[in-house]
Amino acid sequence: MVDSDLRSITPEWVDLLIRPVMDKGFDFVSPYYLRHKYDGTITNSIVYPVTRALYGKQIRQPIGGDFGFSGKLAEFYLEKDVWNSDVARFGIDIWMTTTAVANDFKVCQSFLGAKIHAAKDPSSDLSAMLTQVVSSLFMLMEEYKDKWKDVKKADPIPLFGFQFSVGLEPLHVNVERMINMFNLGIAELSDLLKDILSSDSMKELVDVASSETFHFSDDLWVHVIFDYAVACHKKIMNVDHILKTLTPLYLGKVASLVTEMADSNAQEVEDRLEALCLAFEKYKPYLIDNWD
Question: Where are the domains of the chain?
Answer without folding.
Answer: 175-291
